[in-house]
Description:
Blueprint: H1 55-75, H2 91-107, H3 116-138, H4 170-202
Helix pairs in contact: 1-4, 2-3
Amino acid sequence: MNQHTPHDPGPEDYQAHDTYDTAYDEPDPGFEPGFDPGGDLPEPPKPINWNLLSADDLEAEWLELNKWVHWLRRTYGLPASVIPPFWHHHPELVWELSALHLHWLGAYDPEQNASVPIGWHRDFADARARLREWVAASGTRLDRDRPTRQTSWPGEDRAPTIEDLTIENRENEFVDFVMAQVAQRRQAEDEFFRHLDDQAETY
């Protein structure tokens, strides 16, 4: 089960870049009075396994996490050495930020004890240290990105050469990235169900 804010994304969120109407075109929500990056949760948050999300849930969770990360970096003035623009290209950053987001949702649940948020901030300090390590190891920067370097073990093919990539518009690139991720996941789902149908026909 995923945790969504009141706006659940749909196809209209992925129109052409010069026409799509999303939160990216709106004023910074982090400074609007009453803005709640957690939204109205129908139930307590549960862990998110990014490997097992359906295509529809994957789309929604990417947009939800992206919105919260924008709020986080602006609220706490975080530099690119902690949260770089292209964090979504690095699984180590995605899993860390996703866990921090879920922890935040739980800490600020209206039914939660009032002392819990200070615990979140202690864990947030630890998470910032880990994020700095991940960012430094990955090589991603404010104005360019590269795949996280992989170490080839004996017997494995040598890792491909890593080259920096300059991305001029981060938000447009993020939308393209999510569309590609969702399409890939949907294709995997279609192949899985097609395989089940083929098995059923053999019996």
